[in-house]
Write a structure and sequence with these properties.
There is one protein chain. The chain is an alpha+beta fold. Helix content is 17%, strand content 38%. It has helices at 15-26, 55-59, 94-101, 125-130, 170-180, 234-240; strands at residues 3-9, 30-32, 41-48, 63-71, 73-75, 84-87, 106-110, 119-120, 123-124, 140-152, 157-164, 185-195, 198-199, 218-219, 228-231, 246-247, 253-258, 263-270, 273-279. Strands 1, 2, 3, 4, 7, 10, 11, 12, 13 and 14 form a ten-stranded mixed β-sheet that branches. Strands 15-17-18-19-16 form a five-stranded mixed β-sheet. The longest helix has 12 residues, at 15-26. The relative contact order is 0.19.
């Protein structure tokens, strides 16, 4: 069994918990294509079988979220699950927020939250933070494509639609936005509505899945890879599927390779030669 489950993760459970459910139902190895914090819900693509080999492909894919930022307090985790470090910050108006949004969009250097899985000297940031150990995390280049203010959702809260590249921390956007406004803010809710080709409209909750129906929710690997097709035949197929590079007249790039009967995997073309990169069947 190979492919993806487009899962709608429930808020309040870990990504690892959802992966374990899919693994139990499919009886094969599984892995998520980009974790979601326990408090967050929404699209969590889970790879099944050989689809796990595509983690690197999905790591940098575009993501979309609906996030709620609560203003007035600063938390050590940058979300409202943590401890309050400061309070009394003012609540901005929509006009003020709109004025600072453009400065947060683009290719930026973002400092990750200390309560994150970022490694510091071989240890996770959240492990050090929980023990009260002081440390700093270097800024990382991320891409934020757009931030749209959806409106006020509470006395001190606003909702945002955020489109960004892989590796972006939405909690850090709340911190940076409030800093620009001269106040405090933290993320109080988050839902991922898109991760690469997977969208919330086609996602399924894990409680709806059974051993009997899960195969019907399995998205074939070839359906979510945006590469041109190449059908290998005869001696070319024999050489390719045995790891030999073959001469071709295709442009450089990645291709989806098929044998006479079915999808096989991915191949790289460089300098007029094609070689299988990843077997996915």
């Amino acid at each position: 069994m190979n492919g993806f489950i487009n899962l709608d993760k429930a808020a309040g459970v870990s990504s690892a918990h959802e992966v374990a459910i899919i693994k139990h139902l499919t009886h094969t190895r599984c892995g998520h294509m980009g974790t979601l914090d326990p408090m967050a819900g929404g699209v969590l693509p889970i790879a099944v079988g050989n689809a796990c080999r595509l983690f690197g492909y999905f790591l940098e894919k575009r993501k979309r979220y609906v996030a709620t930022f609560r203003f007035g307090k600063y938390y050590d985790t940058l979300d409202t699950t943590g401890n309050v470090l400061a309070e009394g910050g003012r609540i901005p108006c929509e006009g003020e927020i709109e004025e600072v949004i453009s400065g947060l969009v683009g290719e930026i250097m973002q400092i990750p939250p200390k309560y994150s899985a970022k490694s510091v000297g071989g240890r996770r940031g959240y492990e050090l933070a929980r023990k009260g150990i002081e440390f700093t995390l270097p800024p990382k280049k991320v891409v934020i494509y757009s931030i749209k203010l959806l409106g006020k959702s509470g006395v001190d809260s606003f909702d945002f639609d955020i489109c960004c590249g892989g590796g972006t921390y939405i909690r850090s956007i709340a911190r940076d936005m409030s800093s620009e406004l001269g106040t405090y803010a933290a993320m109080s809710a988050l839902k991922r509505t898109q991760s690469g080709p997977f969208e919330i409209g086609g996602a399924v909750r894990s409680e709806a899945l059974t051993e009997e129906n899960i195969s019907s929710y399995l998205v074939p690997v070839q359906d979510v890879l945006p590469y041109d097709d190449y059908v290998a035949e005869g001696d070319t197929a024999k050489k390719l599927f045995n790891g030999v590079a073959v001469k071709c007249d295709l442009s450089d790039g990645v291709y989806k390779i098929y044998n006479a009967e079915s999808f096989y995997g991915l191949a790289d073309v460089e300098g007029g030669y094609m070689k299988v990169k990843t077997k996915l069947c």
